[in-house]
Amino acid sequence: MQVFDTSSIVYAWDNYPIEQFPPLWACLAKEISQNRICMPEVAVTEVDSVSPDCAQWLADQNVTCLPMTDNILLEALQYKELLEIGMRYGGGVGENDLFIIATAKVHRVQLVSNEAWQPTFPKTKANYKMPSVCALPEVKVACCDFLEFLRRSKAVFV
Predict the structure, then answer these.
(1) Residue 134: what are its φ and ψ, rounded to 5°?
(2) By the 8 A CB rule, do 21 and 58 touch?
(3) How far, CA to CA in Å, does 117 sit from each of 38, 43, 55, 69?
(4) Is the CA virtual torsion 78, 82, 88, 89 positive or negative?
(5) 3-state class of 34 per DSSP?
(6) Which CATH class is domain 2-153?
(7) pTM of full prediction above 0.85
(8) Residue 7's pLDDT is what?
(9) pLDDT digits 0-9 by tens, 35-55
(10) Interval 58-78: pLDDT, tens
């Protein structure tokens, strides 16, 4: 199972239109139906606000929404403390991002996120993007972007 972030599914939706890439979307639908792709509740809510058509497609596929749990909340709180985020978030992850990372961690699955990779960690931890947070030794969540997800799948779309 893999957890998709808002950025990854919206990236796919925007860059690989379903009308032009039907085999890709059929493959994703199959992965969703077999619970190999799922999404945290907060990510599904975000998709609905930024791409209603994509959100409708996900709903039509009955994407599994992983609910917020106490374990996920506690894990996200630990990340917030680790990143030294006080009352305000910096230029990096937001609160929902921490919930999404924590969801992947609690479920012990890979995160698919199209948030920008930072070749070097910013000096201010509050400016870490999702892939940088995932790479921290205290977090250790495998993370890749949508294209890497496709490459690893070895699927051929004809």
Answers:
(1) -60, -35
(2) no
(3) 22, 19, 25, 28
(4) negative
(5) coil
(6) alpha beta
(7) yes
(8) 96
(9) 999 999 999 999 999 999 999
(10) 999 999 999 999 999 999 999
